[in-house]
TrEMBL record:
Keywords: Ion transport, Iron, Membrane, Metal-binding, Oxidoreductase, Transmembrane, Transmembrane helix, Transport. PROSITE patterns: FAD_FR. This is ferric-chelate reductase (NADH). The chain crosses the membrane at residues 29-48, 77-97, 135-155, 176-195, 215-240, 252-272, 292-321, 550-574, 594-614. It is found in: Membrane. The lineage of its organism: Eukaryota, Viridiplantae, Streptophyta, Embryophyta, Tracheophyta. Its main location: membrane. GO terms for cellular component: plasma membrane. GO terms for molecular function: ferric-chelate reductase (NADH) activity; metal ion binding. Belongs to the ferric reductase (FRE) family. It comes from Ananas comosus var. bracteatus. The keyword Ion transport applies. It holds the Pfam family NAD_binding_6. It is a multi-pass membrane protein. One of its GO terms (biological process) is monoatomic ion transport.
Length: 718
């Protein structure tokens, strides 16, 4: 179904369609160029273990790039760092052009060639739900690791010669230990791409940081297995050759063993807390321990030196840019307008946002509430729609852990100053709205898993009422434990109540209450609203880099890296080169690495801060314009300003919500029967909630019993 087909056609004089076609052709060529560069970068990794690279390519590259300004570091910057940064910067420009393209949604039709590849092929297992595409890339990446390790070993073993001091097996163990470290370094080159939330690399291939977190987890486990084996093999080798004192050495111009051991211990402590049981039961331990990545990276840099570190620098550099921008955004106190408290002990927080700031359904924000915890940040799916509520952003929080328990208690009690300090990172949006591709849409949720579907339904409300765009047939199957949880359905309608008529939406809701056979208590009027009194200094949620964020991000990355090259060029030419003369045998590796790190941090901070301050001025002007619009209406008495019963939604929207809902008590949804009964030819199926439910839905869609069901994975690894 073409979701944009009913919009009015443009006038011939403006010819936007021809301009859009031209932009589409440009975008295709840009994406082709980016693909070629990326394939070339991968080929470098593939060729690196071979004798061809070792004997021919590497000497040629070293002689051509070994200048007095960059030394031996210049080679790795050229072949490992520059290609990825080129992809990132040009990718930002690509995404900016795509964002401004008129008919992006028209081009998001169902690609039948990818349907089979996107179906889940692994459902129940340690990797979770894995599609055919993901499995293919897993196999290719493992093949790359095996190829590199085998080729490294074959070449190194051929050069080994037994000596009086060492036996052949000891020399082989030494060689294998080194190559395990090299393969771990290859995995490190990819490790930080998935956790750069604002990166342009993931959107280029249709991914979000949240959906890619599982790749970070897989890579992290692989890295630690390889580095642990690397360290253990060296300890065995040193013990067998009576060189155990090597563990205490920190060579001035070679590998620093002590630094490597500290990096490994930091990584092991971090790795231990990622066990799912520990992460679920003791999230705070996992959260705080994960910051050991700073020690891991620093001492890994000290272990190998800056020249070798440049092989993984692209991912680390882009992560540092992203992390610093998140830090700048988190310093702003956000204008919190109200909170709706439900009998199910769920809370909807409503924030002010700049009207021009648009985000897509299934977006995610990170919240920090100092009165609950000054250090913890928690991710939540945005439940509002920027099309339906242009000046509001909402999230729904279910009371489940200690952090949410404390937040609910604070909101349930009387707030002394009538306000709650909140900081926000994000929102982070998916690049496309895949659910628009289908003629019918089935959404299966369990408990608070209904949250992402609220944003989708609100988006369809806006399309049907405001934009007059036809919407698909929508079936929402939701399971709750108690009848009090049914009040979550009331959040399908925004607190404003504007343009919230469900009668034009082809929506059917099948709600199941699993632990009660009849309604318990009266939950009709138990939704309460807390209204806050923000400070004038509080700001609405706004994009950290303004409306042209992709262009600003490209400028930050390119300018900071160029400035870094200038500074290290000056350092190398006028300070290190007169001492070392590019031999890497005189000047300390550690000193050079620390100076490089300081320059890198300075350049990132300077470029990102300048861009942030510039855009904050524009956001401040817009914030002042909407400040008075966010206050509660003057008709409300002072006694009911902060805490009162929920202002009733308009009766028509609420009546239409009741008419579309069927409630089933004392039973669970028969998912297989309900899904297989759907006869529409093109059905998108989404699931959110307990892992068992998601696995069941994925199994049904991948069983082959119905070719019309297309499973759309939603990740909540954050």
């Amino acid at each position: 179904m073409n979701m944009a087909s009913s919009s009015s056609s443009p006038s011939p004089m403006s010819s936007p369609s021809s301009l859009d076609d031209k932009n589409l052709r440009i975008l295709k060529w840009v994406k082709l160029l980016l693909s070629v560069v990326f394939v070339g970068w991968i080929m470098i990794w593939i060729m690196a273990p071979t004798n061809t690279y070792r004997n021919i390519w590497s000497p040629k590259l070293a002689s051509d790039t070994d200048s007095t300004y960059f030394g031996k570091q210049g080679t790795n910057i050229l072949i490992y760092t520059f290609p990825i940064l080129f992809i990132f910067v040009l990718g930002c420009i690509y995404l900016h052009m795509e964002k401004g393209s008129e008919n992006t949604e028209k081009r998001s039709g169902l690609n039948t060639r990818l349907v089979a590849w996107k179906r889940p092929v692994l459902v129940k297992g340690p990797l979770g739900i894995v599609s055919g595409i993901e499995l293919a890339f897993i196999v290719m990446f493992l093949a790359l690791l095996i190829w590199c390790f085998a080729t490294y070993l074959k070449g190194s073993f051929a050069r080994l010669r037994p000596t009086a001091q060492e036996k052949l097996w000891q020399e082989k163990l030494d060689s294998a230990a080194l190559r395990l470290g090299l393969i771990g370094n290859l995995c490190c080159a990819f490790l930080f791409f998935p956790v750069s939330r604002g990166s342009s690399i993931l959107p280029l291939i249709g991914l979000t940081s949240e959906s890619s977190i599982k790749y970070h987890i897989w890579l992290g486990h692989t890295v630690m297995v390889l580095f642990t084996a690397h360290g253990i093999c060296y300890v065995i080798y040193w013990a067998a050759t009576h060189q155990i004192d090597e563990m205490l050495k920190w060579d001035k111009t070679g590998v620093a063993n002590v630094a490597g051991e500290i990096a490994l211990l930091s990584g092991l402590a971090l790795w231990a807390t990622t066990i799912p049981r520990i992460r679920r039961k003791m999230f705070e331990v996992f959260f705080y321990t994960h910051h050991l990545y700073i020690l891991f990276l620093f001492f890994y840099l000290m272990h190998v030196g800056i020249s070798f570190f440049c092989m993984i620098l692209p991912g680390v550099f882009l992560f540092m840019v992203d992390r610093y921008l998140r830090f700048l955004q988190s310093r702003t106190k956000i204008r919190l307008l109200s909170a709706r408290l439900l009998p199910s002990e769920a809370v909807e927080l409503n924030f002010s946002k700049t009207p021009g700031f648009r985000y897509k359904p299934l977006s995610t924000v990170f919240l920090n509430i100092p009165s609950v915890s000054s250090l913890q940040w928690h991710p939540y799916t945005v439940s509002s729609s920027s099309s339906l509520e242009p000046e509001r952003l909402s999230v729904i929080i279910k009371k489940e852990g200690s952090w949410t328990q404390k937040l609910y208690n604070i909101l349930s009690s009387s707030l002394p100053d009538g306000r709650l300090d909140v900081s926000v990172e994000g929102p982070y949006s998916p690049t496309t709205m895949e659910f628009l591709r289908y003629e019918s849409l089935v959404m299966v949720s369990g408990g608070s898993g209904i949250t992402p579907f609220i944003s989708i339904i609100r988006e369809f409300i806006s399309r049907s009422n405001t934009l007059n765009i036809p919407t698909p047939n929508i079936l929402l199957i939701c399971a709750f434990k108690t009848s009090a949880d049914l009040t979550m359905l009331d959040l399908l309608l925004p607190i404003s109540g504007n343009s919230s008529d469900l009668s034009r939406l082809r929506l059917r809701i099948e709600a199941f209450v699993t632990r009660e056979k009849a309604p318990v208590g009266d939950t009709e009027n138990l939704i309460r609203t807390v209204w806050f009194k923000p400070r004038p200094s509080d700001s609405p949620i706004a994009p950290v880099l303004g409306q042209n964020s992709w262009l600003w991000l490209a400028a930050i990355v390119s300018s900071s890296f160029v400035a870094y090259l200038v500074l290290i060029g000056i350092l190398q030419r006028y300070y290190i080169y007169p001492i070392d003369h590019n031999t890497n045998r005189v000047y300390s590796y550690a000193s050079g690495s620390v100076l490089n790190l300081l320059f890198l941090c300075f350049c990132i901070a300077a470029a990102a801060s300048a861009a942030f301050v510039w855009n904050k001025r524009g956001n401040s002007k817009e914030a002042r314009q909407i400040q008075n619009m966010d206050a509660p209406t003057p008709m409300v008495s002072p006694s009911s300003w902060f805490y009162n019963a929920d202002r009733e939604l308009e009766s028509a929207p609420k009546d239409s919500l009741v008419k579309t809902t069927n409630v089933h008590f004392g039973q669970r949804p028969e998912l297989k029967r309900m899904l297989l009964e759907i006869e529409d030819p093109n059905v998108g199926v989404m699931s959110s909630g307990p892992s068992g439910m998601r696995h069941e839905v994925a199994s049904i869609c991948s069983s082959g019993l119905a070719d019309n069901l297309h499973f759309e994975s939603i990740s909540f690894t954050w």
